């Protein structure tokens, strides 16, 4: 019996030592979108910061498809040791409302929420295929051609899809949804004239708006944005009560050891607080955010419930 007790103590010491050394090998960060989109940009910025802070490689792996279900499923199935992470976005809380029969994980219980680390407001933009300059002119075209004007999103069930569904419901209009597998492809086709419009996260379209390749008509925020001071809010432009934003955050498989969770949470908080992060995110139309631990978990639970009700009310389903 004494030998067994000594063995158990030795195993405990080894486990504690392993936790203390985390990470002692490269960490994989899975992103459910193609390279170049806002989620990917945030993931790579966080990976670079975490690698410097913890002295180990954090490698971003893009796994697009099925509205990020493939990426989330891969992380949900991974060992809860902190070596596989998910950088997800707002659409993570929309998956249960749309894919109830297809999803093999629970958007809340299959994950350990670490921190939301960035947020981006939503902006209505049009490309060369729809040369209007104001929200009034846009709505006039949409109403004149119900169901014909197209809008691009990063995918069915994405934050852009839900944001547009809310907008159409509020304005009593209809448009033609063109889903993509990520923001970068949607924006490319918008600039190329293949689609007419998009309610996109500011982070995915700010450079194109600043260069004049896309026209911003209104921002879904309580006040005008410092990056686009000339663009009115939806409220100012006549569509009252419409706001929308998107968060980007770090999640791990359920069962993540508390020591590892605490270490990752501290890195995420430090990343969000860093002046360099604020500067780089601001240039991309985003703001740093540090909603962590139980607060992040509560936010996810609240959004999952709200989005399920919204999907039911608007008849949104992707199964």
From TrEMBL:
Top-level division of the source organism's lineage: Bacteria
Secretion signal span: 1-20
Keywords, sorted A to Z: Signal
Pfam family, one: TctC
Matching InterPro entries: BUG, Bug_dom1
Entry keyword Isomerase: no
PANTHER family associated with the record: BLR1237 PROTEIN, TRICARBOXYLATE-BINDING PROTEIN
Family membership noted in the UniProt record: Belongs to the UPF0065 (bug) family.
Name of this protein: Tripartite tricarboxylate transporter substrate-binding protein
Species the sequence originates in: Achromobacter spanius
């Amino acid at each position: 019996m004494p030998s067994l007790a000594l063995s158990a103590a030795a195993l405990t010491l080894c486990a504690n030592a392993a936790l203390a050394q985390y990470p002692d090998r490269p960490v994989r960060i899975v992103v459910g979108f193609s390279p170049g989109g806002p989620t990917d940009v945030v993931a790579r910025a966080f990976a670079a910061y975490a690698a410097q802070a913890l002295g180990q490689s954090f490698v971003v792996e893009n796994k697009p498809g099925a509205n990020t279900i493939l990426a989330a499923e891969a992380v949900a199935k991974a060992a809860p040791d902190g070596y596989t992470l998910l950088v997800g976005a707002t659409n993570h809380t929309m998956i249960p409302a749309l894919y109830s029969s297809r999803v093999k994980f629970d958007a809340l219980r299959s994950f350990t929420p670490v921190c939301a680390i960035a947020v981006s407001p939503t902006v209505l933009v049009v490309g060369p295929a729809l040369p209007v300059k104001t929200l009034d002119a846009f709505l006039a075209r949409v109403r004149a051609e119900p169901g014909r004007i197209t809008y691009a999103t990063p995918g069915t069930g994405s934050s852009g899809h839900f944001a547009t569904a809310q907008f159409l419901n509020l304005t009593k209009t209809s448009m033609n949804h063109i889903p993509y597998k990520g923001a970068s492809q949607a924006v490319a086709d918008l600039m190329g004239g293949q689609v007419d419009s998009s309610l996109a996260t500011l982070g995915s379209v700010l450079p194109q708006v600043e260069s004049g390749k896309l026209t911003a008509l209104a921002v879904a925020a309580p006040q005008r944005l410092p990056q686009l001071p000339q663009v009115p809010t939806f409220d100012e432009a006549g569509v009252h009560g419409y706001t929308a934003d998107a968060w980007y955050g770090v999640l791990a498989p359920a069962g993540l050891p508390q020591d590892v969770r605490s270490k990752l949470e501290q890195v995420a908080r430090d990343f969000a607080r860093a002046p360099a992060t604020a500067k780089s995110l601001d240039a991309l139309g985003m703001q740093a955010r540090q909603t962590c631990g139980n607060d992040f978990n509560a936010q996810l639970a609240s959004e999952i419930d709200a989005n399920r009700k919204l999907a039911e009310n608007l008849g949104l389903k992707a199964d």
